[in-house]
Design a protein that fits this description.
single chain; about 20% strand; GMP Synthetase, Chain A, domain 3; three-stranded mixed beta sheet; about 350 residues; Beta-Lactamase; six-stranded antiparallel beta sheet
Length: about 350
């Protein structure tokens, strides 16, 4: 499977490591529209990453579902293609060296030409690999005040307005769920607990560790329907769970950044759930703590990777190495360097 157009798009639009991690594949480009193959069309993380990356190139996105086998075989062919290209360069270099050895009088001059050619090939390869990264960096530096990702508006009907708690219980599950969200977002409530009991259930308001019954004497079926509606909003599968599940989504509500966290747990009778809303200073502190933990994990993994590379370096003379694996690792490291440089640049611009 040899598709030069896809290979070219991997080199210049979507890096190999991103395609591998997110299970996506750039199929073609028409004007400013990129046709993207996705193994899982419901993977919001993969689509969000692709949209964010392409937005810096002012390209729009058209998705098309592809099989995982096609995606894997195409990426495997891409690695073979890269290896073949490097082998051709290596063979050409060997031929050049052989011819130069036959002309001793031109050894010095020929060696200089070959060295310059090798440097040029390497530079062109690096320029090609980092084309998208450099473009992204320049875009981010020129618009450092823009949001780092495209956060969607919270999808609530414009006609929804907070009503009394007594009237809420008369609504159907969908509208009741929307009203609860409005009630939480417009008040100082930080958390709602949906408690399932054998006969009647209730919704508890939790703020600063204090529990207070918000709505009680609800039919268990109604609580179950409300939890399912919240699952739809938070993008959680409606299938019954067997172990606790926690999902977070970021949204914009009335021009404010918020985070919705839904935790669903198996109960003695039916599922129970906790809905938490973070905004303002609470969200800022939470994000800082989360970023701190992520950066610590990244440093630990970096140290582990360094240790593995040291072992490979020390043992390479004992057996032959898999060149494809090293090429993949090299591209991953290049991408990591580009991303860390971008993060450092953004942070310097933000606090300068």
């Amino acid at each position: 499977m040899d598709n030069p157009q896809i290979f070219d798009l991997i080199d210049n639009i979507l890096p190999f490591e991103a395609c591998l991690y997110y299970q996506i594949l750039p199929l073609s480009i028409e004007g400013s529209r990129v046709r993207l193959g996705v193994v899982d069309p419901k993977d919001s993380c993969a689509l969000g990453y692709a949209r964010q990356l392409l937005s810096y190139l002012h390209c729009s996105l058209i998705t098309e579902e592809i099989s995982s086998e096609y995606q894997r075989s195409t990426l495997s062919s891409y690695l073979s293609h890269i290896g073949h290209q490097k082998q051709k360069k290596s063979d050409a270099l060997k031929v050049s060296v052989t011819e130069n050895n036959q002309q001793k009088i031109n050894n010095s001059q020929s060696a200089t030409v070959a060295k310059n050619k090798q440097f040029s090939d390497i530079k062109n390869g690096i320029d090609q690999d980092f084309f998208i990264k450099n473009h992204k960096n320049s875009q981010l530096q020129s618009s450092s005040k823009k949001p780092l990702c495209n956060i969607l508006e919270l999808s609530l009907p414009s006609s929804v307005q907070a009503i009394s708690l007594e009237a809420i219980t008369t609504l159907n599950p969908q509208k009741l769920s929307e009203q609860l969200l409005v009630y939480v977002l417009e008040s100082e409530i930080g958390r709602l607990y949906f408690e399932q009991q054998q006969c009647l259930s209730k919704i508890i308001w939790i703020q600063n560790g204090v529990r207070k019954v918000l709505i009680e004497n609800l039919e268990p079926n109604l609580i179950e329907a409300i939890i399912n509606e919240l699952k739809v909003i938070i993008k959680v599968s409606l299938a019954p769970i067997k172990k606790p599940l926690q999902v977070e989504i970021e949204r914009i509500y009335k021009n404010n950044h918020i985070l919705l966290c839904l935790k669903v747990m198996p109960g003695n009778y039916r599922e129970k759930a906790i809905l938490q809303v973070l905004k303002g200073e609470d969200l800022r502190v939470y994000q800082e703590q989360k970023l701190s933990l992520l950066s610590q994990d990244a440093v630990k993994l970096g140290k582990q990777l360094q240790s593995k590379i040291n072992q490979v370096f020390c043992r390479q003379h004992l057996a032959s190495l898999n060149i494809d694996s090293l090429l993949t690792l090299h591209k991953l490291l290049d991408n990591i360097k580009g991303q860390t440089d971008c993060i450092i640049s953004q942070q310097n611009n933000q606090f300068s």
